[in-house]
């Protein structure tokens, strides 16, 4: 049976491409989605892609992922550093989640060094720009394969 994965993006990531390109690069979220869709097709996995600027919508998306998807790649944006609700939602779904950031959060401002999500994620990928998304897909699919 083929795996289904959700790539979920949080606040301000809809602005990728024009938002601080020196930090986040020039690829748009649509470009990233297209790259991931091609990779998913090549890997034979089902892929859903979503973005919201609203914390509760992201919580709902995690709840909805249970039973629909086998794992989640989550770039929670700034909610990474603030949201206990997102952390609790990840714990509640019991789905494997990879925490993703385009930038290296550990090399940036102090307030970005702490992640509420890290402790409930299977791992974290950060600092590789848009390339982090396909990297996370490889990591998640390998992890899911090992689960079987
Ligand atoms: C981010 C890093 C966060 O600190 C920031 O608030 C974002 C994007 C990243 O992808 O590098 O919005 O998650």
Give structural notes:
Helices cover 38% and strands 18% of the residues. Helix 3 (55-65) runs parallel beside helix 4 (84-93). The chain has 148 residues and is an alpha/beta fold. The protein has five helices and five strands; from the N terminus they run βααβαβαββα. The protein has a five-stranded parallel β-sheet with strand order 2-1-3-4-5, sandwiched between helices. The chain has helices at 21-24, 29-43, 55-65, 84-93, 132-147, and strands spanning 4-9, 46-51, 71-75, 97-101, 123-126.
Q: List each distinct ligand once.
A: 1,3,4-trihydroxy-5-OXO-cyclohexanecarboxylic acid
Q: What coarse outline follows from CA principal-axis ratios?
A: globular
Q: What is the share of helical residues?
A: 25-40%
Q: Compute the number of helices.
A: 5
Radius of gyration: 14 Å
Mean pLDDT: 96
Strand content: 15-25%
Sheet of most strands:
5 strands, parallel
Strand order of the largest sheet: 2-1-3-4-5
Give the low-confidence spans: none
Alpha-carbon distance between the two ends: 11 Å
Strand-and-helix sequence, N→C? EHHEHEHEEH
Number of strands: 5
Structural class label:
alpha/beta
């Amino acid at each position: 049976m083929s795996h289904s994965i959700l790539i979920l993006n949080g606040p301000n990531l809809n602005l990728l491409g024009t938002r601080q390109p020196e930090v986040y690069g020039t690829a748009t979220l649509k470009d990233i989605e297209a790259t991931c869709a091609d990779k998913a097709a090549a890997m034979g996995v089902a892929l859903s892609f979503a973005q919201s600027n609203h914390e509760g919508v992201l919580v709902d998306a995690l709840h909805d992922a249970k039973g629909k998807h086998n794992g989640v790649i989550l770039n929670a944006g700034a909610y990474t550093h603030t949201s206990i609700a997102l952390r609790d939602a990840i714990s509640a779904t019991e789905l494997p989640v990879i925490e993703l950031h385009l930038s290296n959060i550990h090399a940036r401002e102090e307030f970005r060094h702490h992640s509420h999500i890290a402790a409930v994620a299977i791992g974290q990928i950060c600092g590789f720009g848009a390339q982090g998304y396909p990297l996370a897909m490889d990591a998640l699919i390998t992890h899911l394969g090992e689960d079987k």
